[in-house]
Amino acid sequence: MWLQRLALGAPGPVGGLALIMRRSIIEGCAGYLPERIVTNEELAARVDTSDEWVRVRTGIQERRIAADDQQTSDLATQAAERALANAGMRAEEIDLILVATTTPDNTFPSTAVKVQAQLGATGGPAFDIQAVCAGFVYGLAAADGYLRTGGADSALVIGAEIFSRILDWEDRSTCVLFGDGAGAVVLRAANGDGSNADRGILSHHLHSDGTLYDLLYVDGGVSTTQKSGYLRMAGQEVFRHAVNKLSDVLLEGLAANDMTATDVDWLVPHQANKRIIDATARKLGLPTEKVILTVDKHANTSAASIPLALAEAEADGRLKAGDVVLIEAIGGGLAWGSSVIRW
Ligand code: ACO
User: Fold this and answer.
1) Of 116, 131, 190, 281, which residue is 20 to 30 A from 214 by alpha carbon distance?
2) How much distance in Å is there from the Cα of 161 to the middle of ligand 1?
């Protein structure tokens, strides 16, 4: 029972004994954005769209686009180096490296091993996580599992994407929505008492439903066309699933921690569309002042969007030690999930 609770991360004392439970604390986070800014007006010169259409439907004003000579591993390494500096740790102190990405440098090896080599942290496990826009939440859950069960004492979890390379730049319904970037967090194992007052990651709830595969996918790949292909999306259906599934999975996380929306200090959502974020927050009863928004400047950076938003909110002093922070994301698969973090 004790072990079971330990493994599942269920809070609270067992048989009157105080638990000592390993938690993953976020020691540092940081983002990296490519230099080149592309505004809605610039896109309007290329496809039949307008700044007003994009702003009103999505909240996006501009996005960053990687330089031709930049690969996903380059963006990831920059974010990782900054996160390590923010945590006051050296790359050699990191046991595990996970990169959540849908736009890897190569079919193999993983982008994570390229980042590992660039950081100079060879020897420990490094691998990629593929859960599209939900990749960071999935990666955080995987790394947290290693740390909780003693498989690692520290980890780097990176979300990094160059979505501009899988966009059909003739398709106005998708090319206006995405941007490039990377974000990273450094996790360190620490002991807590197993209650929801512990600092660190308190819970994860992950889901996927492969029957909804064709709502959002790339029309290529190694075993189909031998080309990477372009993103295709049924926008309105994705929108509807996003609002319902994200609000449900956030409530699932709160309930598992005996919390309600009034306990939440910050919602740091996946940044796909301001209307999805607003509708999800409304369903939870969270005021807009408690929601971190970066979609206006970054657009949808897929797996990078949450760590980029965490980094921004921490750097400007909004996220403080002890705050209850909810993260959530949904993307191709469909795959979705949430985590509850005591910052
Ligand atoms: N500029 C101008 N007009 C456009 C554009 C554009 N960029 N894109 C589509 N339109 C047109 C359509 O052709 C359509 O024209 P019609 O009425 O003459 O046929 C009209 O605008 C309305 O199109 P809809 O698709 O109905 O527009 P909607 O209000 O649903 O907004 C959007 C589209 C923004 C894609 C929305 O559905 C959405 O945000 N969906 C969620 C998708 C998403 O965020 N995906 C990201 C990946 S998944 C994730 O991260 C959650």
Assistant:
1) 281
2) 22
DSSP-derived 3-state class of residue 143? helix
CATH number of 23-192: 3.40.47.10
Q: Is 40 a catalytic residue?
A: no
Tokens of 309: 């938003």
Amino acid (one-letter) located at 231: L
Residues with CB under 6 A from ligand 1: 49, 53-54, 57-58, 133, 172-173, 176-177, 216, 233, 235-236, 238-239, 242, 270, 272-273, 300, 330-331
- Each residue of 255-302: pLDDT tens digit? 999 999 999 999 999 999 999 999 999 999 999 999 999 999 999 999
Q: Give the number of other Cβ atoms within 10 Å of residue 262's Cβ.
A: 8
What pLDDT digit, counting tens, does each position of 100-157 carry? 999 999 999 999 999 999 999 989 999 999 999 999 999 999 999 999 999 999 999 9
**Active site residue: 40, 86, 133, 273, which one?**
133
**Same fold? 23-192, 200-342:** yes
C-alpha Rg value of the chain to the nearest Å: 19
Q: Do the Cβ atoms of 302 and 181 come closer than 8 Å? A: no
Catalytic residue flag (residue 133): yes
For the chain, domain boundaries = 23-192, 200-342
